[in-house]
């Protein structure tokens, strides 16, 4: 197999250090003869290769799935070339093209690991790179900053890259337990028969993070939690949890099933009952954040899906920065039993940090009593040994791109529908002049997010 040349724009950014380099390290040292790559890292800072690799080393040590060894890291650094350039300078691309020719680099995969406002300019610059239009491009989420910019971006990118070479990545679609949702749902009649509003009271998708925005103020302050997490990752999860049986596990069938859910999302009328935004205290002191910024670092929302299966069952979504924990989980809360004292059954799909499934049901307390107690069955599929063998999301998706497999990449119509929904939420929130509530770092977020559920007699499952 030919060697793929990955050019990573945004090579000094958080995504590259935290996720991409550790993923490439894993793939490079995994001894897969099929995997051959070269990494051209684009950054505007003045680093030698050695300096760049010395910084990368600490990130790889901390985040790579496979064990760090000096020998392996040295092997990995042989694949890395740091290339200094300001990617907004259109003249700089001629020199980049010369660099590719001198070093005989073809089979390009361009990775746009940058804020979406830079996608256009990089694509324009690449028109000066002879082989670029034959290459593939991986675009990070969010694709655009709103519906209008996403449409324009789509049009412009398709002028340059052919549609089959455009890979819109959403790394949540590479996560093991997100991939598992459909198997869990459809291959288990004990779940599939109950997977509807008759039996399910609410669905809760939670993705709290303990980190703040770290060094990403430049990107994050223009984005916020709804654009950064909900429009893409969490709506993808919602549509997989809610979709109908896709008839086959083919990518087109699944994509169509997801699209039907996004179309059925009920437009919000009363924003006060649907959305709570928050911002952690101290956010204004973060680097590159505008003074008085009202960007939300927390979002909680309630969504309804207007179809027969989900009529009347709310889907709650919450995510935020600087909260008291980092996890992703999907809680399916079943309707109460006719026995008043029996707590509700709950099924939790644990996506991270541990992967597994948790089921809560009722038993008789042992002994001479009729009291009810909860049985908590916790299946954990992450053990240390297993983790070493589970390809991480980015590894999977990067390999899929090399193989031209688009099954688990976002499609344009999904992006369009979810932007449409998110834009309206933003507009309504602004129109009603609703506050962005302050919350303490290390907390569960603003208390107004609890009230969002309490209005329907529900509570977040923690
Ligand atoms: N961080 C994460 O965990 C994830 C991020 N993403 C997505 O990845 C994208 C980037 O995010 P993230 O890495 O966090 O953002 P950062 O702000 O950390 O990184 C942005 C990068 O762009 C570079 N850059 C900006 N302007 C220029 C320029 N003119 N010339 C050259 N380089 C430039 C920055 O360089 P410099 O260092 O010099 O400022 C930096 O390397 C976003 O779309 C985000 O949604 C997706 C999944 C996960
Ligand atoms: O896309 C993004 O994802 C990360 C969270 O990813 P995870 O795999 O660690 O759950 C988030 O921190 C970042 O803000 C966002 O851009």
From TrEMBL:
SUPFAM superfamilies xref list: Glyceraldehyde-3-phosphate dehydrogenase-like, C-terminal domain (SSF55347), NAD(P)-binding Rossmann-fold domains (SSF51735)
Superkingdom, taxonomy of origin: Bacteria
Active site: 233
Segments forming domain Glucose-6-phosphate dehydrogenase NAD-binding: 8-180
Domain Glucose-6-phosphate dehydrogenase C-terminal, chain residue ranges per copy: 183-460
Binding site for NADP(+): 44, 86-87, 141
Pathway: Carbohydrate degradation; pentose phosphate pathway; D-ribulose 5-phosphate from D-glucose 6-phosphate (oxidative stage): step 1/3
Protein known as: Glucose-6-phosphate 1-dehydrogenase
Gene: zwf
């Amino acid at each position: 197999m030919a060697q793929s040349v990955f050019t990573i724009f945004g090579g000094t950014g958080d995504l590259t250090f935290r996720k991409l380099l550790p993923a490439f390290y894993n793939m490079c040292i995994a001894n897969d003869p099929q995997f051959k790559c070269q990494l051209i890292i684009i950054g505007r800072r003045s680093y030698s290769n050695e300096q760049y690799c010395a910084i990368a080393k600490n990130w790889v040590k901390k985040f790579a799935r496979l064990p760090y060894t000096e020998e392996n890291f040295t092997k990995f650094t042989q694949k890395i070339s740091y290339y200094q350039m300001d990617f907004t300078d259109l003249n700089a691309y001629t020199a980049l093209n010369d660099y590719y020719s001198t070093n005989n680099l073809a089979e390009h995969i361009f990775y746009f690991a940058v804020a979406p406002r830079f996608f256009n300019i990089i694509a324009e610059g690449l028109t000066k790179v002879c082989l670029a239009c034959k290459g593939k491009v991986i675009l990070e989420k969010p694709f655009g900053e709103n519906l209008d910019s996403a449409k324009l971006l789509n049009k412009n990118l398709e002028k340059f890259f052919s549609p089959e070479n455009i890979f819109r990545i959403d790394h949540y679609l590479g996560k093991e337990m997100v991939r598992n949702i459909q198997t869990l749902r459809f291959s288990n009649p004990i779940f599939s028969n109950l997977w509807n509003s008759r039996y399910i009271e609410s669905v809760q998708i939670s993705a709290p993070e303990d980190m703040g925005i770290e060094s990403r103020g430049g990107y994050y302050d223009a984005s916020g939690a709804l654009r950064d997490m909900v429009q893409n990752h969490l709506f993808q999860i919602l549509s997989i949890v809610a979709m109908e049986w896709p008839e086959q596990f083919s990518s087109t069938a699944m994509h169509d099933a997801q699209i039907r859910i996004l179309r059925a999302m009920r437009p919000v009328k009363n924003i006060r009952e649907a959305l709570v935004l928050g911002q952690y205290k101290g956010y204004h002191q973060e680097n590159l954040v505008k003074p008085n910024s009202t960007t939300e670092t927390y979002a909680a929302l309630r969504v309804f899906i207007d179809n027969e299966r989900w009529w009347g069952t709310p889907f709650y979504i919450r995510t935020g920065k600087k909260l008291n924990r980092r996890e992703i989980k999907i809680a399916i809360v079943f309707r109460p039993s006719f026995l008043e004292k029996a707590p509700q059954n709950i099924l939790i799909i644990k996506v991270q940090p541990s992967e597994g499934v948790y089921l809560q049901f009722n038993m008789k307390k042992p002994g001479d009593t009729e009291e009810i107690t909860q049985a908590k069955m916790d299946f954990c599929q992450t053990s240390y040994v297993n983790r070493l063998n589970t390809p991480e999301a980015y590894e999977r998706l990067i390999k899929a791109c090399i193989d031209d497999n688009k099954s688990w990449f976002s499609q344009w119509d999904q992006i369009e529908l979810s932007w449409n929904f998110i834009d309206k939420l933003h507009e309504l929130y602004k129109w009603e002049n609703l506050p962005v509530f302050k919350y303490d770092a290390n907390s569960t977020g603003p208390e107004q997010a609890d009230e969002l559920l309490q209005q329907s007699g529900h509570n977040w499952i923690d």
